[in-house]
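User: Predict the structure for this protein chain, please.
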Amino acid sequence: MIYIGSDHAGYKLKEKLKTYIVELGYQVDDKGAFALNNEDDYPDYVKLVASAVAGNSENMGIFLGGSGQGEAMCANKVRGIRALVYYGGKNCQRDINGNKMGAVASARLHQNANILSLGARFLTERRAKKAVKIFLETSFLNEERHVRRINKLETSN
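Assistant: Here is the predicted structure, written as structure tokens:
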């Protein structure tokens, strides 16, 4: 299951991404916001997404906020969550060696990121869809060194 949520800043893009994720063949459960309300607070919805994802290792989450930063900070407070932030830009497209891996694929491959936090104010719909596709289709490498590091993250709380 793919859990998705947003605050007012990401609401319109979230609505478009829900359809796209279903087109990719995934089930989507929207945790809100369910209407555009400029007075809403992202932690209310992030906590719902993060709790749902943390409850099952097969689940993944996507959250859309203004920058994605505060949203990821909130999600990462939930045990078992490894949220990555993506808001585009040249440095997020390639790794240090110039490979078309980028931040999203790297976080999935090496940290088994389970929530993608998107900065809706910085992303076009096309770029957001590309990030979502990479996030959902990239599998964790499950190598001993990566598992060891993730275990250290889990025990640091």
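Residues 2-155 form a domain with the Ribose 5-phosphate Isomerase B; Chain: A, fold (CATH 3.40.1400.10).
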